[in-house]
Write a structure and sequence with these properties.
The chain is mostly helical and 174 residues long. The chain has helices spanning 9-31, 34-96, 99-108, 155-167. The protein is built from 4 helices and no strands. The radius of gyration is 44 Å and the shape is elongated. The chain starts with 8 loop residues before the first helix and ends in a 7-residue tail after the last helix.
């Protein structure tokens, strides 16, 4: 059997005061004109609707960010997989192009190793030999950005040039 704790006399006064205040608030709400009550209800409903719309917008943006993040992770996995596959292909290609593998394939195809005295060279007029296979493109050396003359001008020189260019008529621009 449960018993309720005995209330102290000061506690009872506070509880009664809170009850009285709540009843007075409800009575004052009932005594308000109907149009004011409707305004408060509409204002409350609009507030709830605005909060719901902002929450929905936040959830939409968050969901899009999460989906985009997941897509980026998936693309990074695909890139890593492609890099591994390319590395495997490069390894296979290097094995196929090795000297021993080339000699083995040549022997299987019926070619024989010749000595230097057994080879006859013929010059065919009009024949231009192919340059061969280029595995990498030629590297073009570029001038570092810091060495470019545009980056040696001071801020004041640049500003003076910009003002001079802006103040000249369009036909006189160098």
């Amino acid at each position: 059997m449960t018993t309720t704790p005995a209330t102290k006399p000061g506690n009872t006064k506070r509880l009664f005061a809170a009850y009285t205040e709540a009843v007075n608030t409800l009575d004052s709400a009932r005594s308000m004109p109907l149009n004011i009550q409707r305004q408060w209800v509409i204002l409350f409903a609009v507030g709830i609707a605005v909060i719901a719309m902002v929450s929905g917008l936040y959830l939409d943006v968050t969901a899009r960010a999460a989906i985009t993040g997941r897509e980026i992770q998936n693309l990074e996995l695909v890139i890593a997989s492609n890099r591994r596959t390319n590395a495997d292909y490069e390894t296979d290609f290097a094995l196929l192009m090795s000297n021993q593998a080339m000699q083995d394939r040549a022997r299987e195809s019926g070619f024989e190793m010749l000595e230097q005295g057994q080879v006859e060279y013929m010059i065919v007029p009009g024949y231009l030999p192919v340059d061969g296979i280029h595995f990498k493109s030629e590297v073009v050396e570029t001038q570092p950005i810091s060495a470019a003359p545009e980056f040696h001008a001071s801020l004041l020189d640049w500003l003076a040039e910009a003002v001079r260019t802006a103040s000249t008529p369009l036909g006189d621009v160098r």
